[in-house]
Design goal:
158 residues; mainly alpha; two-stranded antiparallel ribbon
């Protein structure tokens, strides 16, 4: 874990604590701990999964795009596209994505899709939140989130 990742985790925790009405120190510590654990690749400090098969199945169910968007605070189409990119990278394990992937993610989540999905993508590239991937995906331009894009998306949590 390098200093950049620790800095990102601290900034994310500060923003979450500032948005919290109560329990600011607990919010800060909780968000910081979760952020640092995600950076190190640890999922949880809990013991092995329970022996109960029902609990084991429900614990490891995939995260739907609708669930992901439901606890995010998005108001602009740029925010929707950044969150869709974050969902694709973290929950679909896609290292890069094209405009069609973003569109499908938004449709699956029942989120309004911009008329021309390329416009917010290009705006986000200009702001440094997305970057073009050198190798194209199926002959189409591919994109990935930058570190700044990941920080911005993390700040959109309710």
């Amino acid at each position: 874990m390098d200093e950049t990742q620790i800095g990102i985790a601290i900034e994310t925790a500060k923003r979450a604590a500032e948005k919290s009405d109560a329990f600011k120190s607990e919010t800060y510590i909780g968000v910081l701990l979760v952020s640092l654990l995600q950076v190190t690749g640890k999922e949880s400090l809990s013991p092995q999964p329970p022996n109960d098969p029902v609990l084991a199945i429900t614990k490891y169910k995939p995260f739907s795009s609708s669930e992901f968007f439901s606890n995010k605070n998005w108001t602009k189409e740029n925010d929707r596209v950044v969150l869709a990119a974050l969902y694709l990278e973290r929950h679909v394990a896609s290292s890069s994505f094209d405009a069609h992937d973003i569109r499908n993610c938004l449709l699956a989540a029942k989120i309004p899709v911009p008329g021309n999905i390329n416009v917010p993508i290009l705006r986000l590239v200009k702001r440094g939140l997305l970057m073009e991937v050198p190798k194209q995906k199926g002959g189409k331009k591919s994109w990935t989130l930058t570190q700044t894009g990941q920080q911005h998306a993390a700040g959109l949590t309710r």
